[in-house]
Amino acid sequence: MNRPHARNSLGKVFVNELFSALEHLRFDEKVRVVVFKSEVKGVFCAGADLKEREKMDDAEVGLFVKRLRSLMDEIAALPVPTIAAIDGYALGGGLELALACDLRVAASSAKMGLIETTRGLLPGAGGTQRLPRCVGVGLAKELIFTGRQIDGQQAFSMGLVNHAVPQNDQGDAAYQRALTLAKEILPQAPIAVKMGKLAINRGIEVDIASGMAIEGMCYAQNIPTRDRQEGMAAFREKRPPRFIGK
Questions:
Q1: Percentage of the chain exceeding pLDDT 70
Q2: Which interval of the chain is the signal sequence (predicted)?
Q3: 96 is catalytic
């Protein structure tokens, strides 16, 4: 993300560009992991572009927030694992974007929060639904009701991020840790990883019996893959597997 003059805030043009990028990523079979990062030092995403928002009437606001919600859903629906590298401020819609990712890595000094109530708003791009799944209902309510900002270390202690790392002189410590994490995922069987993501995402929405059925359907899709056969052969031959995503 690289909109320095507006701290990567989510304006109409920027949102359209993100949709276009997601469309490309969704159908690129070479993509195994997606990392969301900022090229703007000190900020991940400052949230909605409120300067643009204040020029909208009520109907336009409603339509734009609906489009933001669709954007976050598109990020969540990417078939490959996604990682948010939070090296600076992730506020409001910026944190909602990170919440739409599968994994989050933050610099200890990063600041994040669903601050909408401090602006007379409430989270409208999935924050009220995704935050409780990360930190639990009680903490989610506290963070949303107060509009409090927390740092990366606090976010880690709450379970909001997977890793918190000290910031480096380049200001990209979270991105570097996210790359390391991505490289751990990269060698694994792509279809198995995709099916694992699908099973978790769909299963968490239903009761455990239905979730087990979803897991069974995902597992069944993986059985006939060449990668599964390669994994068994590599185990038998005591060598590293060479997965091809087929």
A1: 100
A2: none
A3: yes
